[in-house]
Amino acid sequence: MKTLLAPLSRLADFDEIVDVRTPLEYADDHIPGAINAPVLSNEERVVIGTMYRQVSPFEATRLGAALVAKNIGHHLETLFADKPRQWRPLIYCWRGGKRSGSMTTWFNMIGWQARQLEGGYKTYRRWVLDSLESLPARFQYRVLTGHTGTGKTRLLQALGQAGEQVLDLEHLSRHRGSLLGALPGHKQPSQKRFESDLTSALSHFDPARPVFVEAESSRIGVISVPRPLLDAIHRGACIEVEASIEDRITFLLQDYSHLFDEPEHFKQLLDRLAGLHSKQTIQHWHQLIDSGARAQLFGELVEQHYDPAYARSSHAHFQEISRALPFIFRPNGVDGLPQARLLLQQITAAHAGDTPCAPADAACGKLTP
Predict the structure, then answer these.
(1) From 93, 238, 357, 364, the catalytic residue
(2) Active site includes 93?
(3) Count: domains in the chain
């Protein structure tokens, strides 16, 4: 009898990847690109599990089979109704067991060349963890360092538009990476989902070309950056992104304007700085929020909090920070692409020796892939 199992290495052989786990399991993490066609709902899985423990495995299996059959039938009439005869799906559940096995069997009876992922999601998850141990060290990183408000994320995005390889950790984590960095209307992904997306991004990079990345701490909101990636980034060549204090404040006022829509929440965020600043200072910042002194508030936050924090952290972690290539960026410009291309020209010139690196020529060699 022909096996209906397929290893993880054959993902690219299939037209579609189908995750038959519950919506909650799928939301927590899934193989990138997979669609969700649950054979048990969130509630049904709880009922079956409870029955298995409290009544009997036989009764739970019998009811489970009926529910799975009903749900597969619904998917056949809706989600998969227009799939052609030659469609080849790969199906998985938690361990590659009964849930994915049931759908795989039915699909092959219909005539589709469906296969079941060997080992299920657990095999995929193990591959992600193994990949995050080894993949980061394959690349050489160009790290955008610089004070808060210099527009490092906008420059990173512009470098992507210019055709460079960029790793946008803030985009993957749905967070700007600071105390005030939560994105309005966006919930951060689970740690597992972040790691899946991160592995997918790294897997598509060419090791022969550099990867541009923004300097981040070990935590971005609630997300932890894997240590092997952090270590590799900390060894990378640094580009010190600079901007005038006026440009930085203008940039921050634009990027964080939503905070003033909920002043009490803004104050609660600033209260978390109590261990770093006096009660009087934080109360003063509260008063600036109440009075609408936005520019003064961000000016003081930059001078008294963000800049000192950057001075402490950057020199402690980034090995090449003292030999960083300086680059003046206008974060409030309408189009960052010309500035990104200018940076690339400066990197090329520095490597070729046409212009000196600051403060020492040794940085030039660090900027080559």
Answers:
(1) 93
(2) yes
(3) 2
